[in-house]
Amino acid sequence: MMEYPISIRSFGEHAVLIEWPNEVDDAILEDIIQFRSFLKQNCLEPQEWEMVPAYNSLTLIDRERTIDYQMFKAQLKTWYRERVGVKSRLRYLWKLPVCYDLDFAIDLEEVAERLGQSVARIIELHTSNIFTVYGIGFLPGFMYLGGLPKELEVPRRLEPRQKVAKGAVGLAGKQTGIYPQESPGGWNIIGNCSVPIFDAKREEPCFVNVGDRIQFYAISRAEYDLHKIQGEVGIYQFEKIKLDV
């Protein structure tokens, strides 16, 4: 198992931030997820600690106690060297439906023109690629998806919108993502996902985890309307494939 040059620093009285090399890299993300699993299974009580992985970091938050930073830092370095034999959690490829109808895809034509591509080609590129969930945040259930083809890289909008619709699928820089609820936002909107990404009423409000994969597929407006009804009554079945990792 490769050992990365990690850094550890205090993140307030109740948290520490562990950082890996500042790169968007699947191997680094895998090491972060493996270390989190090792800590959960061998070192820290999951009910006492919140562990938040992201692109190249892992934040550890003690829900009750103040952390003795120097002592905990030394312990973490030892645990990192000892991380072996950990059972990683199951990970999945989730296939999510997106309607690219121009009623939803309010920036699609502008994005296509800016990138010198046809609308059909933008949709083809977006649906043929498999994305990695590198982080979840900003809004509950907002997935930061890495692995965007260079042909789809487009800057954030210069003027963010005050309201972006729930389910809006956007592009920004090297990422794509889905707005799980209506909110302000500056991403370029190219479609809308017809199924709820975050639902506080579910046992697991966000079904996706960091390290999972996402692949989009195009649906018609009629299919979109059907999925919305199925999602509202709780009978929509998410398509997922178990990954070998």
TrEMBL record:
Residues 6-208 form the Carboxyltransferase domain. The keyword Metal-binding does not apply. It is an enzyme of class 3 (hydrolase). InterPro entries: CT_C_D, Cyclophilin-like_dom_sf, PxpB. It comes from the Bacteria. One of its GO terms (molecular function) is 5-oxoprolinase (ATP-hydrolyzing) activity. It holds the Pfam family CT_C_D. Its EC number is 3.5.2.9. Keywords: ATP-binding, Hydrolase, Nucleotide-binding. The keyword Cytoplasm does not apply. NCBIfam families: 5-oxoprolinase subunit PxpB. PANTHER family: 5-OXOPROLINASE SUBUNIT B. This is 5-oxoprolinase subunit PxpB. The gene is pxpB.
